[in-house]
Amino acid sequence: MTDSLIAAQLFTLRDYLKTPDDIRASLARVREIGYTAVQVSALGPIAPDELQRVAAENGLEIVATHISYQRIVEEPQAVIDDHKLWNCRHVGIGSMPPDYRSGDGFARFAAEASAAAAPLVEAGLTFNYHNHSFEFERFAGRTGLEILQEDSDPRVFSFEVDTYWVQHGGADPAALLRNLVGRMHVVHLKDMMVRDGAQSFGEVGEGNLDWPAILAACRTADIEWYIIEQDTCPGDPFDSLALSLRNLRAMGLQ
Fold first, then answer.
1. Fewer CB within 10 Å, N or C, the chain?
2. Do 39 and 73 form a contact (C-beta atoms < 8 A)?
3. How many CA atoms lie within 13 Å of 74's alpha carbon, on the beta-carbon side?
4. Which residues are bridge partners to 193 per DSSP?
5. Is residue 1 one of the residues assigned to a domain?
């Protein structure tokens, strides 16, 4: 087990993860940068056991995933088996299906996802919902995210707060993290900067988010894994992951 609390979200490198050979080469580069843990997402086809071998060969733990909600609904035992193989506890979904994105839909998703993910939690895993900014639209006085929080089963339904998308939705990432204490295990760290007058994804510490407040809130929430993600990068995404890691370590997180 690594002593680090920091992981790389492989979605950042999705264009370099199309084949097993791509995955092997990219994971080697991730390890060379200094990461010892990854979140699996957006990989090209690779067998679960081969992925485990490739990660282990490169000294990387698989500590979280993003998979499709449909898999959780239709084949929960296969999801459990894959995560047990990887010794990975945290199952995540990157977003909710579009047909749930209404006031009634958020409430319906909260209930249905709580039921669908219950077998995972019973097997010792966690279920983590990753937000974007559409969850901050209001329906009858509540944001979509508040509906998810209040109408889901807190024993099953956890949150994977994405700092950029919270800010993009007009909310305060640190305040949301404090509000969700007890409902989180992992967090997505990405910065927001302004380029040519428009909001843009940035490396951690290179933009305008209040990182001292965010990291303090994460410590209060007892976050297990701080996962660095960048949806788009201005250049080589490996360089962006390296810069975010250096900056985060300079802030005192190891």
1. N
2. no
3. 5
4. 200
5. no
Domain span including residue 107: 6-250
- Provide the CATH number for the domain around residue 142: 3.20.20.150
pTM of the model: 0.97
Is 125 a member of any domain? Answer: yes
Q: Are 151 and 110 in contact (CB under 8 A)?
A: yes
Per-residue pLDDT of the chain (254 residues; tens, 9 = 90+): 557 899 999 999 999 999 999 999 999 999 999 999 999 999 999 999 999 999 999 999 999 999 999 999 999 999 999 999 999 999 999 999 999 999 999 999 999 999 999 999 999 999 999 999 999 999 999 999 999 999 999 999 999 999 999 999 999 999 999 999 999 999 999 999 999 999 999 999 999 999 999 999 999 999 999 999 999 999 999 999 999 999 999 999 98
- Domains in the chain, number: 1
- Counting Cα atoms < 13 Å in the Cβ hemisphere of 203 gives 18
